[in-house]
Amino acid sequence: xxxxxxxxxxxxxxxxxxxxxxxxxxxxxxxxxxIDPLQGRAAKxxxxxxxxxxxxxxxxxxxxxxxxxxxxxxxxxxxFPQFLFDMNKxxxxxxxxxxxxxxxxxxITSCFACEMFLQxxxxxxxxxxxxxxKPWIRIPGIIYSAHALSLFVPIGxxxxxxxxxSFQDRVILSFIYSPYIIFPLWFLAKMLLEPTPYVKVExxx
Length: 205
Description:
mainly alpha; two-stranded antiparallel sheet; 7 helices; 2 strands; 68% helix; 3% strand
């Protein structure tokens, strides 16, 4: 079966993400205008903080991981170069991860579908909002964080109850998966505690 090269895979991912960003801008602009927490008030962008940089890096790193590895459960195999399957297989053989093993059960595939079609577009939007200091990301950010943390309940339970991994494997897997709990919690805390994230509302004289 013919497979695409890594270069073509990169081009495909870039085109897909560009299309997603364009559609999101057209579809959600009215919603964004409606949930703008500033509501016409003057505001000054705040400097990029360490937390903002960490959140941006997390979202940026999550996109290729979601598409190139978790996407193997959803996207036809012909769209992936062989080395990605080999990397995934070597990882599974080493740590016996029950979440990414193929073929995946229906419930895991449904989780990956939520990740691919809901979370990945949000990652791109969140990166834009962080970079350009857009406070309208607050409500979408709360929704994303709650959704991501909810998905992790069955995933975390499976990591510790599924047959196959040893206790040592489960500890290592928990460490590997921990950023996908820590960062959504961290982002959720920021969105809840800051009514106008990334900007400082100027006092009305």
